[in-house]
């Protein structure tokens, strides 16, 4: 089992940047595919980015494409999400998640462990 704790959220003006962090417990962090999802009020949880155990990364499609970077530091058991050129529609609770099984997935249900989320609010 792994526990995930997100940090780095907050209030930012449109056009600004944020770097979210997700610290994982345990010694098996390097074996997980890690993902970031977000959920705005009244909306479904949405995939943002993922990174494989060896650092192959996908930073979404659609609304955040080209504005995000996901990275990981296996020595620190931490995954990061850098978001740039933030827009009010990026306002959401951002969650990090860990996937035990092989294979990249953008589906929330494929992930086994979740953090409690960190609020990101972008003002116009």
What would your notes on this structure say?
The protein has 124 residues and is mainly beta. The chain has strands spanning 4-7, 10-13, 18-24, 33-39, 46-51, 57-58, 68-73, 78-83, 92-99, 113-114, 118-123. The strands form 2 sheets. Strands 2, 4, 5, 6, 9, 10 and 11 form a 7-stranded mixed beta sheet that branches. 32% of the residues are buried.
Topology:
Elements: E1 4-7, E2 10-13, E3 18-24, E4 33-39, E5 46-51, E6 57-58, E7 68-73, E8 78-83, E9 92-99, E10 113-114, E11 118-123
Parallel strand pairs: 2-11
Antiparallel strand pairs: 1-3, 3-8, 4-5, 4-9, 5-6, 7-8, 9-10, 9-11
Shape: globular
How many DSSP-defined strands? 11
Strand content: over 45%
Assign a percent range to the helix content. Answer: under 10%
Give the terminus-to-terminus CA distance.
40 Å
How do the SSEs run, as a string of H and E? EEEEEEEEEEE
What's the mean pLDDT score? 94
* Helical run tally: 0
Key phrases:
124 residues, mainly beta, seven-stranded mixed β-sheet, 47% strand, globular
Summarize the structure.
The protein is mostly beta strands and 124 residues long. Helices cover 0% and strands 47% of the residues. Strand 4 (33-39) and strand 5 form a beta hairpin.
């Amino acid at each position: 089992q792994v526990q995930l704790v997100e940090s780095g959220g907050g209030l930012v003006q449109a056009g600004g940047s944020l770097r979210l962090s997700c610290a994982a417990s345990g010694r098996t962090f390097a074996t997980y595919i890690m993902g970031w999802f977000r959920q705005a009020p009244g909306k479904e949880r949405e995939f943002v980015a993922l990174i494989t155990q060896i650092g192959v990364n996908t930073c979404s499609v659609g609304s955040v494409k080209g504005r995000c970077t996901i990275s990981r530091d296996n020595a620190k058991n931490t995954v990061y999400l850098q978001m740039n050129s933030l827009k009010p529609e990026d306002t959401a609770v951002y969650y990090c998640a860990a996937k035990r099984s092989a294979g990249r997935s953008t589906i929330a249900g494929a992930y086994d462990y979740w953090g409690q989320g960190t609020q990101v609010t972008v003002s116009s």
